[in-house]
Specification:
The protein has one domain (2-146): Up-down Bundle (Four Helix Bundle (Hemerythrin (Met), subunit A)), CATH 1.20.120. The chain has helices spanning 2-25, 31-52, 66-86, 108-132, 142-146; strands at residues 93-97, 103-107. Strands 1-2 form a two-stranded antiparallel ribbon. Helix 2 (31-52) packs parallel to helix 3 (66-86) and helix 2 runs antiparallel to helix 4. The radius of gyration is 15 Å and the shape is globular. With 147 residues, the chain is mainly alpha-helical. It is built from five helices and two strands; from the N terminus they run H-H-H-E-E-H-H. 26% of the residues are buried.
């Protein structure tokens, strides 16, 4: 399971890094894309914090300046790799509060997979936002990553 999650987080890192690099050289990044990518970063951070039983430094929809994305992204990935490396078992159940204060329990496996799936969903929304702003979206297909 470690190898599986390491591969998924490598892919996630690659895709998010492509967005960061692209947006850093653009004259104007659509506001919606900035909001969505900040949300990707915030949610990843929040889920890592939940897994580790720590408070989160970010709110789900807090917007970050584009030049801060790289550092947040790197720290999120480093923390996730540390979680995967040190996992006693991926079926371990973890209690946490959601952003509305409701209590839930999920397995570590479910939480880690959610980080990846959530990021993928919002990267798709960013691609749509790029296209609606007459910008060519980046390609994030997993098969292209594996080539």
């Amino acid at each position: 399971m470690n190898a599986f999650f390491n591969e998924l987080f490598d892919y996630n890192f690659y895709c998010n890094k492509k967005i960061i690099d692209q947006c850093l050289v653009m004259d104007t990044v659509p506001n919606k894309s900035q909001e969505l990518f900040s949300h990707i970063l915030n949610a990843h951070h929040i889920w890592n914090a939940r897994i580790l039983g720590k408070p989160s430094d970010f709110n789900p929809w807090e917007t970050h300046p584009i030049n801060a994305w790289g550092d947040i992204h790197y720290e999120n990935q480093r923390t996730s790799f540390e979680i995967v490396t040190n996992a006693d078992g991926f079926d371990k159940r973890i209690d946490y509060e959601n952003s509305e204060g409701r209590l839930f329990t999920n397995t570590l496996q479910d939480m880690l997979f959610h980080i990846i799936n959530h990021s993928t969903n919002h990267r798709g929304q960013i691609a749509v936002d790029f296209r609606s702003n007459q910008l060519e979206p980046l390609v994030f297909d997993y098969v292209f990553y594996k080539r």
